[in-house]
């Protein structure tokens, strides 16, 4: 199946016990170093897809049928122990909310060092050097003062950077980011988006970037897959998605994007109604 050097080549369906057919015949391919966007509305199965690729769905009682070939090996045929040695090293995930993903009781430095030791052996100095390099890659300081902080002493943006640093500690070939900017304000979100582009360029990390926001996905990704009704209905370059979408659903997604705050038509009736109300309320 994996003849063309794809990093990831997946063909699978997912059923939850109470919700069969959550994902149907999903076909996804990622080349090394590629950024693939996955767009779909809330509840369309984006997180389920991410968990399926990480081999984490058995923990949620879901059945994944098919194959997920990553670096030539089918992850759906691996034991939990084998998966543990892949997760966090060759393939990692960054979730939406940094402050729930970090342990509130442990210092940042301790958590990063534990994440390093989970997949590497070496001296304390090797470990610290790796942690500092990862923090440097996400533009955070690696000094003792920062490493001693607890998660509550970080801003949400810093928390997300710490999680991304943790995710790239072992230079994964694939980073899955599941709505990594949804909990952030607009400016912090765009800084994190830029950070993903930098990591992709500088470390060559392939990224599966999941979001409900087509605009940010189009800015970052080489290709965009659209998830609707349990299926990937279209997968194309951002330019094709915007300029010549094949699917009606994709056309609706593009058409729904705000183009300018002044473009929304305000009803003349509504304006007149407002005037009447104001006149009535305040008299003349
Ligand atoms: N553990 C679960 N058991 C049953 N249904 C689930 C479970 N987790 C998610 N679902 C359902 O699967 C669908 C897809 O959920 P999810 O993958 O979280 O979507 P998204 O990330 O796109 O918002 C939703 O309808 C959700 O209610
Ligand atoms: Mg989700």
What is the CATH superfamily classification of the largest domain? P-loop containing nucleotide triphosphate hydrolases
Shape: globular
Share of residues in strands: 15-25%
Number of strands: 10
CATH architecture of the largest domain: 3-Layer(aba) Sandwich
Mean pLDDT: 92
Distance between the termini: 78 Å
How would you portray this structure in words?
This protein is an alpha/beta fold and 284 residues long. It has two domains: 201 residues, P-loop containing nucleotide triphosphate hydrolases (Rossmann fold, 3-Layer(aba) Sandwich), CATH 3.40.50.300; 70 residues, no CATH class. Helices cover 40% and strands 22% of the residues. The chain contains twelve helices and ten strands. Helix 8 links the parallel strand 7 and strand 8. Helix 4 packs across helix 5 and helix 5 crosses helix 7. The model has no long low-confidence stretch (mean pLDDT 92). It binds adenosine-5'-diphosphate and magnesium ion. Adenosine-5'-diphosphate binds next to strand 2 and helix 1.
């Amino acid at each position: 199946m994996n003849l063309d050097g794809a990093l990831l080549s997946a063909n699978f369906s997912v059923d939850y016990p109470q919700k069969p057919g959550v994902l149907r015949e999903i076909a996804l391919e990622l080349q090394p170093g590629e950024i693939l966007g996955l767009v779909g509305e809330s509840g369309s199965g984006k997180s389920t897809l991410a968990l399926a690729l990480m081999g984490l769905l058995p923990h949620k009682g879901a059945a994944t049928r098919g194959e997920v070939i990553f670096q030539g090996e089918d992850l759906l045929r691996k034991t939990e122990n084998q998966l543990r040695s892949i997760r966090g090293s060759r393939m990692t995930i960054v979730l939406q909310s940094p402050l729930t993903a970090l342990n509130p009781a442990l210092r940042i430095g301790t958590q990063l060092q534990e994440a390093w030791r989970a997949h590497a052996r070496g001296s304390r100095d090797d470990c610290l050097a790796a942690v500092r390099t990862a923090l440097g890659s996400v533009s955070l300081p690696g000094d003792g003062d920062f490493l001693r902080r607890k998660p509550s002493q970080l801003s949400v943006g810093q928390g997300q950077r710490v999680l991304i640093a943790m995710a790239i500690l072992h230079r994964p070939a694939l980073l899955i980011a599941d709505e990594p900017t949804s909990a952030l304000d607009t400016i912090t979100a765009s800084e994190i988006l830029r950070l993903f582009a930098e990591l992709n360029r500088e470390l060559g990390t392939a990224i599966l970037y999941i979001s409900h926001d087509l605009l940010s996905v189009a800015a970052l990704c080489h290709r965009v897959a659209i998830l609707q009704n349990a299926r990937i209905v279209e997968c194309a370059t951002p330019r094709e998605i915007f300029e010549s979408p094949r699917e009606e659903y994709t056309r609706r997604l593009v058409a729904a994007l705000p183009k300018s705050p002044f473009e929304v038509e305000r009803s003349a009736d509504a304006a007149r109604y407002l005037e009447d109300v104001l006149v009535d309320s305040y008299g003349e």
